[in-house]
Design a protein that fits this description.
The chain is of the alpha/beta class. Helix content is about 40%, strand content about 20%. Strands 2-1-11-10-12-13-14 form a 7-stranded mixed β-sheet, with helices on both faces. The chain has a 5-stranded parallel β-sheet with strand order 4-3-5-6-7, sandwiched between helices. Strand 5, helix 7 (about 130-145) and strand 6 form a beta-alpha-beta unit.
Amino acid sequence: MTESRYAAKPWLGLLNDAQKGAISPAGSLVHALRRVTAEAPDSDFLAYFDGRLTYRDVDELSDSVAGHLAARGLERGDRVAVLLQNSPHFVLAVLGAWKAGAVVVPVNPMYKSGEVAHVLRDGEVAALICSDRAWESYLRETAADSPVRIVLTGCELDFQTRDDARVLTFERLPHASDAEDLVTVARAGNTAPADREPGPSDIALISYTSGTSGTPKGATNTHGNIMYNAERQRTGLGLPERPVYFALAPLFHITGMVCQFGACLNSGGTLVLAYRFEAGVVLDAFAEHRPHYTVGPSTAFMALAAHPSVTREHFSSFRVISSGGARCRRRWWRSSGRASGRTSATATG
């Protein structure tokens, strides 16, 4: 009985023609970046508080990161761990690693030393890109007993000038002598290696599971996996041309990586970053940047709806909002008088 119900694929009835139509995704997000840069080089790609980076900026900066990594001995297929919050540094690190032919290992920046040590060893990580604060406080010692041989660090106060004390609660540190500065490397004008751009079957990510029932395991995603989902979002969400995405989910998580970073880049849109979740900061960003799409856990939306300064206008620009992790209490949300009637909401498991 159950098998016959699934064989009928009843979920297809929930999809429109655009969502069911055939697609032809690019080979990787690197190819998508090259395409959008050629089409609209001066269009904003990243918005980080008051800072902006265009597609041309990101393409050139990530080229330089890739060239530096290759010059330092990083080879095709090597693993690069990226342990950063939602800032431009994360995007430059990931794209730079991919342009160098490497596999990205996104790491939760809230991980403790033992958790990171397991990822670095199990993932056979050759390069680590992290914040200078994390390097100084515990990652230097953690990485000492690992395969890591290249370290780039950055201060997430870069690329903006507001220094919002609600989330950017730290000060700049003197740069460590045993690590290289990510922003300096990105601005050095290095040329990316010409023969390493990834194809659809190449592994893009090794994302580690939560380990709730055992030791965390590395789950792989190919560039083709990412691009299929990114293209499905571009063709199926019904967003305007050059859409604005707000990165509510952390980019190190597969949801943030694919449904925010990947989908936005593939759509030639603007990705709004606000370092980490803080309800007041997020609402300010909604009001300033007028995003069309975001995705995150239901607990985040409950926190936003409960914030004392929230209004309907904060959500009026959205065309689609997706949530997951737990049920959103629609009746409570609507009865609060805070959700925009123009917003389409979708839930994911």
